[in-house]
Amino acid sequence: MDFLPVELVRLVFQYCDAPTVRALRLAAGRYADVGYEYLLDSHFNAVEWRDDISRLRSIAGHDRLRGSIRFLTFNFSKVDEYNARHTTFFQHWLQEPEERSALLQDSWIRYYELEENARKLPPFNARSSAVEEAFKRLPNLKDLEITLTKCPYDIPLLQEVFQVRTCRKRDRVQACKNMNAIVSATRHVRLASLSIDQLPLEIFRLADDRRHWFDCARSFASLSRLSLTLDPPANLLPSARFRAVNGLGHVLHYSVNLTHLTLAFHNYHAPSHKFHLSFQALFCGSDFTYPKLTDLKLEGVSCAEEDLKGFILRHGATLERLRLGGRGLAKPSEWSMGGVHLHEGSFRGLFTGLRKATAGGKMLALKRFHMEGDAEAGDFMASSREVYVFRPVTDDEWVPTVDCLGLERFLVEGGEYPRLGKEVADGE
Q: Using an 8 Å Cβ cutoff, are 146 and 197 in contact?
């Protein structure tokens, strides 16, 4: 073993789990040296109930370990204890009472222990300098994820209940502070992908908050993938709404090298409502185009047919995969509710217009199309309007689950317009 080439030693380490790596490094000084790069997983997951900021800073300060971190996740999710307790009880209603009681008690005791650890630590935003110091020393950090929707606990009971949106606790003010602290630190790195789930829209409204994002223009310019799931507040006056959308548009303007863009709106105060979005307002009335965009996903928006069509066609030369709609905030047992609404125009007009553009050579790059969730077109007060519910046929990685929809064949291959259903009158 002492005389094996370094390449074979590395191959051996690749098949070892973390405990085995640590044990093998104790076998000889040579293995200890080669095994440095296998000590840490490339994905660092930071949660609030552990002192992960201190650990991340220590790794970033180590000459040989700092290069290991390539993917960083900050999980700020919290459990709404009141709703989660009721939900977990009813989810396990059919179990034997003694078994159910033991399961619930063990899980909640473990939860309280972790939360007690979290209370001993200072707020995340109070340690922004430590986060910034760590980012400065992570040369290989390329992928950043910020989430408030994934269970931060290794507790099966809570992981199960966390799929229900009402069991997630929300603190918009603290979320904005945490987001600003992280975004400010990103100006020291050149990220390839950024994903934020449940981003408060009002963060782009106030000057002090916007400054953190606008100062990172160079970092956004390096992105090839951007996924933003925004949470609009319940009450946002027109002037504040305009300023928030304008701030979001500036961030999108900075991200000029995107190949993948996901823009979703999840209204937690009204899950079935769609966010009224104008691409002309979002991009300040310009014909802004991403020259490298291949994948586009829009979810939970209400827009005009011509506005949406124009935005898609501007990217017709490069756009290969288009997704309209998604799962939204639907519970596990519900239909998808993250569809796209048209408050002006019709889906038939949208799809036939895109098909004509494809036949005319403007969208020859298009290979895949998918629509999911509730879709409505037309004035709600009109005598008739288009109302559809599209089942998911692929996941977000384009792995098919059932046969593709006729719409995809129509847009990519041509032929007759598919029968989607019927226009329904109000009250049907």
A: yes
Separation of alpha carbons 198 and 261, rounded Å: 16
pLDDT digits over 274-313, tens only?
Answer: 999 999 889 877 788 999 999 999 999 999 999 999 999 9
E strands present in 102-237: 143-147, 168-169, 193-200, 225-231
Whole-model pTM?
0.89
> Are 370 and 351 within 8 A, CB to CB?
no
Residue 83 resides in a domain? no
Helix (H), strand (E) counts: the chain: 16, 17
- Report which residue type is found at 233: P
Q: CA angle, 216 as apex, 213 and 222 as ends, to 5°? A: 125
371-408 tens-digit pLDDT: 999 999 987 666 667 888 888 877 787 776 555 567 88
Contact between 373 and 336 under an 8 Å Cβ cutoff? The reply is: yes
- Rounded to 10 degrees, what is the CA torsion of 140, 146, 147, 148? 140
Total domain count for the chain?
2
Whether 74 contacts 147, CB under 8 Å: yes
- Token readout for 254 is 């900075």
Q: In the numeric block, which tokens belong to residue 336? A: 């998808």
Q: For residue 355, count CB atoms less than 10 angstroms from its CB and return exposed for 0-12, middle for 13-18, buried for 19 or more.
A: buried
Rounded distance between C-alpha atoms, residue 310 and residue 314, angstroms: 6
- Kindly state whether residue 338 falls inside one of the protein's structural domains: yes
Tokens read off for 427:
């009250």
φ, ψ of residue 347 to 5 degrees: the values are -70, -35
Q: How far is CA 61 from the centre of its chain?
A: 29
Range(s) of the domain holding residue 30: 1-39
Using DSSP's 3-state secondary structure scheme, residue 227 falls into strand
Best CA proximity match to 313, nearest among 280, 289, 281, 297: 289
Whether residue 9 lies inside any domain: the answer is yes
* Rounded-to-integer distance, Cα 428 and Cα 422, Å: 11
What phi and psi, each to the nearest 5 degrees, are found at residue 385?
-160, 165
Is 245 inside any structural domain?
no
